[in-house]
Design a protein that fits this description.
Length: 139
């Protein structure tokens, strides 16, 4: 039974396959692409996402006729973020949705006199009728 791999690992395996088919070592390919050999290794192992401009460059060097660029372009949005950074993206999306957090059940501008009166009347110990009535008369 084969082990499941992520999308970027599959892309990396394809880069490695094309590189080996071109009879290039990682060092030779890195030099030709003007990148560090560790960058090539990280892309091939799926730890580093292959960026669209880099995919086009790799296509030219490996003679793959745009296959890598097309693969990167068609990658699902959720897959475009490397796995270790996915939790950061999830938290960021949650934080954006919390920008409209309200400390009250009904935002201040939408509160009616009845809502205001009920809020003050429910306080323990009770404020008393004069405070409650004054709160209801506020503009």
């Amino acid at each position: 039974m084969s082990k499941k791999v992520g999308s970027w690992q599959a892309v990396g395996a394809l880069v490695a396959h094309y590189r080996k088919h071109a009879r290039l070592t990682q060092e030779q390919f890195a030099e030709a692409a003007s990148v560090h050999v560790d960058t090539v290794g990280s892309i091939e192992q799926g730890r580093l996402a292959l960026q669209p401009d880099r995919a086009e460059q790799f296509d030219e060097l490996l003679g793959t006729k745009g296959a890598l660029a097309l693969l990167v372009e068609r990658m699902p949005v959720r897959e475009k973020v490397v796995q270790f950074a996915q939790s950061l993206v999830d938290h960021e999306q949650e934080a954006v949705s919390l920008l409209s957090y309200e400390t009250q059940l009904v935002p201040g501008l939408l509160q009616t006199k009845d809502y205001c009166r009920a809020t003050f009347d429910s306080r323990y110990p009770a404020l008393g009728t004069e405070h409650s009535a004054a709160a209801g008369r506020q503009p």
